[in-house]
Amino acid sequence: MKTAEGGSGSRRRYLDIAQNLLTAFNNGEYSPGDRLPAHSEIATQANVSRATAREAFLALELIGAIEVRHGDGTFLRGSAAKVGGAHSSPLDVPPRELIECRLHIEPIVAGLAAARIPDEQFAVLEGILDEQQDLVDKGEKVARFVALGLDFHTTLAPGCGNSQLADIVRQLVNFEHHPLWALVNQQGMPDARSRQSQVDEHRAVFDGLRSRHPETASGAMSRHLGHLERTLFPSAENARSAE
Fold first, then answer.
1. How does 162-175 read in b/e, with b if 16+ C-beta sit within 10 Å?
2. What is the Rg, in whole angstroms, of the alpha carbon atoms belonging to the chain?
3. Taking a C-beta distance cutoff of 8 angstroms, is the pair 112, 165 a contact?
4. 20 to 30 Å CA-CA from 11: which of 46, 143, 173, 203?
5. Within 10 A of 28 (CB to CB), how many other CB atoms are there?
């Protein structure tokens, strides 16, 4: 397992380990049902403590990527596993609440930004999108791809011209405040097709901003976050349909 990429000194070490493991899963280094190395082996490979390795495994279990069979070991789940796994945990609630908050707030932010964002910010946003596009086919760089995707949202937010709304968006997608959020996003983009979909959705938001059309930008943001919610939490859509 490779060491975590990028200057992530401020991030929790277990998150780097968990992201690297997810990358290995998505790259086919393990198949669904495979038994994973023990915590001690992962700790040695990554040069971290066994406690840190255990935290990484716990995070992966919480998002449903792996299954712990007590007395038998830890196994990779099938591709159909979603956040929370077969036995939902109270600790998977924060990501669900985050996406619900984002669905209510970010379309408004995007609509305001279409009218208010400074022209010079378009080049910054486009640079993020161009780098994301370059990484679509690079499975080993998915952690960086995820970080860029969240950067797109935090870079867009101040363009709404409302510092309170911008701060709320930054908090909602912040790795340090919500470390599982990075893993949730990464698990939702296991292949090039899913990553290309995110780039296309971000481009649609960007086009609405650049055209200075609030309804277009807001609608594109709503569709993007709605797609993310359906991908990660299919049961949420079913629950709303039953209401």
1. beebbebbbebbeb
2. 18
3. yes
4. 203
5. 8
Is residue 199 within 8 Å of 129, Cβ to Cβ?
yes
Inter-axis angle of helices 163-172 and 142-156, to 10 degrees? Answer: 160
Mean pLDDT to the nearest integer, 28-46: 89
DSSP3 helix / strand / coil % (the chain, rounded to 5)? 70, 5, 30
How many Å apart are CA 50 and CA 42, to the nearest integer? 8
Q: Are 201 and 226 in contact (CB under 8 A)?
A: no
pLDDT digits (tens, 9 = 90+) for 17-26: 888 898 888 7
Retrieve residue 48's tokens.
């971290």
Q: Is residue 6 within 8 Å of residue 147, measured between CB atoms? A: yes
For the chain, what is the mean pLDDT?
83
Rounded mean pLDDT, 208-228: 97
Chain-centroid distance, C-alpha 138 = 16
- Compute, in degrees rounded to 10, the torsion defined by CA atoms 48, 51, 88, 233: -20
Euclidean distance between the first and final Cα of the chain, in Å?
45
150-156 contacts at long range (C-beta below 8 A, 24 or more positions apart):
150/175, 150/181, 150/182, 150/185, 152/125, 152/128, 152/202, 153/106, 155/121, 155/124, 155/125, 155/128, 156/109, 156/110, 156/113, 156/117, 156/121, 156/125, 156/205, 156/209
Specify the DSSP class assigned to residue 37: P
- Classify residue 87 by its DSSP letter: S
